[in-house]
Amino acid sequence: MNVGMLDRLARIVIGIALLAFALGYILPGTGWNWVGWIGVVPILTALLGWCPAYTLFGISSCPRKSLR
Asked: Which of 42, 48, 66, 68 is most buried by its number of CB atoms within 10 A?
């Protein structure tokens, strides 16, 4: 796991907003609504708690755990 709780919450909010755009609830009829389907990605990474891009760049938003 490399996605912390605050990061997960932000990803869910952004994902829902993007999906709302895709479905036409936000700015309907712009012709770019298909781009909103990208919102599936942050929702999935939030639910899984793992982000492949974070792994690639060696980033983690999870708090460090003690090794005791």
From this structure: 42
Tell me if residue 23 falls in helix, strand or coil: coil
Q: Round to whole Å and give the CA distance between 25 and 10.
A: 20
**Does the structure show a pLDDT above 90 at 47?**
yes
Helix or strand holding residue 28 (H, E): none
- The alpha carbon of 67 is separated from its chain's Cα centroid by a whole number of angstroms, namely 29
pLDDT tens track for 48-57: 999 999 999 9
Q: What is the pTM of this model?
A: 0.86
Question: What is the signed CA dihedral for 21, 25, 27, 29, rounded to 10 degrees?
Answer: 90
